[in-house]
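Researcher: Next entry in the queue.
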Amino acid sequence: MSEPRQGIRFAAVLNSTRREAGLSYRQLAQASGISHSFLSHVEKGERRAPPARAILALADALKADRVTFALAAIADRAGSDVATTMVAALRRGPVGRDIDPTAGVLIESGPAGAESELADLADHDDAVDELASRLAFVDLQLDVGYMRLGISAVGGSEPIVLFVSARADAESLSD
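Model: Structure for this entry, 175 residues:
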């Protein structure tokens, strides 16, 4: 099994910007003050984006837009947090197409077999990393207290769209 992909968006921004600048890992490490080994792991998505200070040092060393780097890092961290929350909700159950979203996870749409795919996913030790790597979109409606997200389905072009109420979701924040 390959390493979990923790920083997919930041990794892509870092990789493309470093290549456009024509710098090696070692050259960027020297310019930013960050270990070339750590940069390699971050760029491969094997590590989360570094702390804010390092993100800004990388952007500055690459003469890149600090906001672009910061937003990519935030998106990765938020994706991981959303995945953690949703895996906890999936494990708590119930999950299905005719579920009250205040009591479980409603499958709004997706291919046949989505229920068993989600059950299998929730049973794995690396469920959070897997779900984070498959996130297609996240829609947080804080004013009405719900979260919708889409994840890519295994072998399908149609994503699985899930809905969970803040009431069902709140307990997972402490998990």
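Model: Confidence is low (pLDDT under 50) at residues 1-5, 168-175.
Researcher: Noted, moving on.
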